[in-house]
Amino acid sequence: MSQDTIKVLIIDDHDMVRRGLRAYLEIEDGIDVVGEATDGSEALSAVMTHQPDVIMMDLIMEKVGGIDATREVLAKFPHIKVIVLTSFYDDEKIFPALEAGATSYLLKTASAEDIVEAIYKAYKGDSVIDAKVAGKMVNRFQHKPSRHEELTSREHEVLVLIGKGKTNAEIAEELFIGIKTVKTHVSNILSKLGVSDRTQAAIYAHQHHIV
Amino acid sequence: MSQDTIKVLIIDDHDMVRRGLRAYLEIEDGIDVVGEATDGSEALSAVMTHQPDVIMMDLIMEKVGGIDATREVLAKFPHIKVIVLTSFYDDEKIFPALEAGATSYLLKTASAEDIVEAIYKAYKGDSVIDAKVAGKMVNRFQHKPSRHEELTSREHEVLVLIGKGKTNAEIAEELFIGIKTVKTHVSNILSKLGVSDRTQAAIYAHQHHIV
DNA sequence: CGTAAAATCAGACCTAAGACGGAGGCTATT
DNA sequence: AATAGCCTCCGTCTTAGGTCTGATTTTACG
């Protein structure tokens, strides 16, 4: 479409960040910031209004998060490139964002050059992944499908209750099963997660946001 | 000192945020951005170099966090006003920051006007606390000193290890004390936190980000 | 229909965890 | 000098947690 200038839409609830980003991008001849939105819920209409080529997307916003917004936008406009630009790099954010179709994943510690470069690359169809984030991705591919995905639904249910600090007796009562059965589930959970007691399982549950 | 212009130092590891902030402040006649730092470790030297009246301080930075930096700076320059400007508003950040001597606490969702106003107020000695943060403070005063602050340093240490999933034996080994002693500490921790077993204590530790 | 996985329960067994009570040494504050 | 809080440790006792082996029933799938 636009051969020379890339139309960029900024979606971020931090006014300050939008300002900073604009400052970066407005001095670039090849880039034109065509609009802004302050929440994922405004994303779709902003996209329709401004017809951007690239979206700079924050992940954590008041109403609708960036991941959902990305999914929505790409469902209707699959040609748009979404660059995630956020402060966080934990597993529970990165992978859903990429699954939702984000092209690149940058951290807000990125420099102006990094960001400008990422936009040009995204426009060409290339991806830029922050080094810290890339490290996480490597782990993901080297190892496991996040062990707890192997849990059966019942085991998952039990793990959630462990994560809430329930005792076996309480779990049994809550699930209308016997304590012996709960113990069986707990044992299976522990070995599947590769941990050695319920406390570590509870920690696992919290670190993986299963609570 | 400076009757008409307030000298402001920005400390934040997000280049973009620094840009945005500068954009806000540079159009203000009464405010002069005299310098920047990208990490808490640079804070002290930057303060000595630029002699600011007000510091805009991010909390989460690579090496030295904003809370420690605030403490350091105020120890040597108690007349400086520190405005915390961050994305987070959980208990474990807010209160330590205020205890460290921060004057105001703003979120990065704040508008230009909010920030400019906060700087003028801070310079006069007034505080500005974001509404969301203020809500947390009210809770704090209505209720409790976040139970775990009653923990002794040793107990806190033990709680951290519980939060890492260690057994009593492992904790004993790691702290060079007897298992019996660990048990005593654990018992005290449980009753102080108002929980009934180590698993709940571990969950508590994670939810309050003491890990 | 046959098979495999999931869910349920049982008994025997062992151990870590936690409660309770008591106690001595250390340090800081008054 | 004395009080108070913290850290350390001991023994005893009870129970919750966890393993292992094994078994029955239900559910799902080809």
From TrEMBL, chains A, B:
GO MF: DNA binding
One protein family per Pfam: Response_reg
Keyword set, alphabetical order: DNA-binding, Phosphoprotein, Transcription, Transcription regulation
Positions of modified residues (4-aspartylphosphate): 58
Full protein name: DNA-binding response regulator
Native source species: Pullulanibacillus pueri
Biological process annotations from GO: phosphorelay signal transduction system; regulation of DNA-templated transcription
Start and end residues of each Response regulatory domain: 7-123
InterPro entries assigned to the protein according to its UniProt record, in alphabetical order: CheY-like_superfamily, NreC/VraR/RcsB-like_REC, Sig_transdc_resp-reg_C-effctor, Sig_transdc_resp-reg_receiver, Tscrpt_reg_LuxR_C, WalR-like
